[in-house]
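Q: How would the structure tokens look for this protein?
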Amino acid sequence: MPIKIPNALPAAHILESENLFVMDADRAYSQDIRPLKILILNLMPIKYITETQLLRLLGNSPLQVEVDFIYTETYVPSHTPSDYLAQFYGTFDEVRHKKYDGMIITGAPVENMEFEEVAYWDEVSEIMEWSKTHVYSTFHICWGAQAGLYYHYGIPKYSVPEKIFGVFKHHTCVKYERLLRGFDDEFYVPHSRHTEEHKEDILKVPELTILAESDEEAGPYIIANLAKRQFFITGHAEYDPTTLKQEYDRDLKAGMNPKIPQNYYPDDDPSKPPIVRWRSVAHLLFANWLNYYVYQETPYELDELYKEVDD
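A: Here is the predicted structure in token form.
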């Protein structure tokens, strides 16, 4: 996919080195097509890492995508310089008048807090409410998924005795679902979290369908309201090969005695390079979402689409 991002965004250089087609603004404007407009609410502390992970996957398609990044005004991240935010990010107030084909709400390192205790909860709640009428399909990841399930459907999260940490086997739960097209019957996805949703809570909500889950400790993985095109992804298919390693090494250095990520290192030996088991799943997941739930169903004029949605 020729993905349109700011010319100076650090992720652009990384993606170009991986032979992904990155289109700068000047070239994009010369093409007589309407790109898909995607909004990313990036709640992670180190913005450029998450940017690169998501843009790598959004770039795996022949479609042109135009991405806007926003951060929360009610809590300014301390791990990203303010000049970086000013150059590459906007605020919700700056985009609330716009309409988007799709939106991604990322995870955030606040899962051990009650939702209402999070400094930016009110702002995120407002954005999630706004997404119902201004975004055609919304993709929630990890804490973003927990927040979306809680805000939209009242589904709580629960603390787990031991961190869910590793690469877990999953299986599909429905046949012929477009989001899962091309998935193997069993596949692996990374997880890294201290909380979970209970399957029985999800099953009580008739609008929701569990599309994929793990019989191991990872539990439900993809939950969807297909009618409203809302997706809630509890794991991290977007993770880089070394993301879990970096987290494990960080916690080890801090004296936290972390457990070794499951199904990650050969022979559970952290001295060996980790095995990537989820790369194909990640590309399929994002490409299917863009194709079947964003591109194929949206009209050329976004304003026309939301006249239909608002009706």
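The chain has eleven helices and eleven strands.

The radius of gyration is 19 Å.

Upvote if useful.
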